[in-house]
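Can anyone check this?
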Amino acid sequence: MVPGVLTTMTENQAILDHIEAMGESELDELPVGVITLGLDAKILRYNKMEAQLARLDQRSQLGKDFFKDVAPCTANPEFQGRFLALAAKPEGGVENFDYTFRFSWGAQRVHITFIRKPNREDVDVLVTRVGA
């Protein structure tokens, strides 16, 4: 299995079902990127795989505004707009879409899953690479 690429939707769903209960070490063992954002878009959790995929220092991302400080390429209706729409729904929900991160070293195609459990004050973001 290629790091950061899920092979089945069953694996994806298993992570989504338990992600909010996972501790830091469990998140760091996942083969996909995981970011937990507060409803204000501040990074609450940022796992090891996401740091590797984005080529960023894992610990220094905590507390930063995701859209302004970490991934300004996502400050658009396609990505941030979907986040804001889900953050505005206290009943929660799931949003799936494909996206291209634009890094200084090149573009990276990913599949994004936003999940907000009912009445939670955060949104989990699952980042899976598309292709090898």
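Reply from J.R.: I decoded it. The chain has one domain: 9-129.
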